[in-house]
Design brief:
There is one protein chain. This protein is an alpha/beta fold. The protein has two domains: 4-103 and 227-252, 3-Layer(aba) Sandwich (Rossmann fold); 112-223, NAD(P)-binding Rossmann-like Domain (Rossmann fold, 3-Layer(aba) Sandwich), CATH 3.40.50. The chain has seven helices and twelve strands. The strands form two sheets. A six-stranded parallel β-sheet has the order 3-2-1-4-5-12, with helices on both faces. Helix 1 (13-25) links the parallel strand 1 (4-9) and strand 2. The mean pLDDT is 92. Pathway: Cofactor biosynthesis; adenosylcobalamin biosynthesis. Keywords: Cobalamin biosynthesis, Oxidoreductase. GO terms for molecular function: precorrin-6A reductase activity. InterPro entries: Precorrin-6x_reduct (IPR003723). One of its GO terms (biological process) is cobalamin biosynthetic process.
Length: 256
């Protein structure tokens, strides 16, 4: 019996969990694609490809040439460029497509959030007076901090920031989530952090820093997500499994 072929654009914990769940059904043949921005990606339960496609046209060609039946965009909520390409490629090929997007974090009592649209705005909103800033945005846009060199920065990312930041006072922490509240509180206290810059990624893997900031009364400059993809969107791995199974009932597997 032939399997339904799925191309999944990944890079999140949810993508890995979904790939594992799809593999466990025995009905799907999944290829997981990563952008290649992380030097040492975590182990994956399905075959892996690394690298870009050359925009929407390249992705569309890859889908056609590979005989894929479904495209799943399970990239990071802030990976706007690949998500746009995914939507355009799905429309160009007529291949069904879903987006897996975990819900945004919502402010709770005790949170001291300043909503901002971009990281550059967050850096500007820190103000002119020197602050001790935890920059928890990954490495891709960490250079934005160079616009405000009066602050002291703690930068956390999976891989080193390259090229290195040109700042008078910056420390780099190489680490990969998930994190727990106790360790995040300790990190913030040790470095005497008074401001946190982060993206509204949602999910549980990195939420501990938000809880820690709430506990310590630290200002959070929260970067909002860009508009969601135009393709049909679901919020959980379980909902995605149900959507895929609904689209491809067991009797539709090739050879049945």
């Amino acid at each position: 019996m032939g399997k339904i072929r799925i191309l999944m654009l990944g890079g999140t914990g949810e993508a890995r969990a979904l790939a594992e769940a799809l593999e466990g059904t025995g009905r799907y043949e999944t290829l997981l694609s990563l952008a290649g921005r992380t030097e040492k990606p975590s182990d994956q339960p399905v075959p892996l490809r690394i690298g870009g496609f050359g925009g929407a046209e390249g992705l569309a060609a890859f889908l056609r040439d590979g005989g894929f039946d479904l495209l799943i965009d399970a990239t990071h909520p802030f990976a706007a460029r690949i998500s746009r390409s995914a939507s355009e490629a799905a429309a160009a090929t007529g291949i069904p497509a879903f987006a897996l997007r975990r819900p945004e974090w919502m402010a709770e009592p005790g949170d001291r959030w300043t909503p901002v649209a971009t990281i550059a705005e967050a850096i500007e909103r820190l103000g002119p007076s020197p602050r001790r800033v935890f920059l928890a945005i990954g490495r891709q846009e960490a250079h934005r901090a160079e616009a405000a060199p009066q602050h002291s920065y703690l930068v956390r990312s999976v891989d080193p920031v390259d090229p290195p930041l040109v700042l008078p006072d910056v420390q780099l922490v190489l680490d990969r989530g998930p994190y727990d509240v106790a360790s995040e509180v300790s990190l913030l206290r040790t470095h005497r952090i008074d401001a946190l810059v982060t993206k509204n990624s949602g999910g549980s893997a990195t939420y501990a820093k938000i809880q820690a900031a709430r506990q310590l009364g630290i200002d959070v400059f929260m970067v909002a997500r860009a508009p969601a993809a135009t393709m049909e969107t679901v919020a959980t791995v379980e909902a995605m499994l149900a959507a895929v199974d609904h689209l491809f009932p067991p009797a539709m597997n090739r050879g049945v």
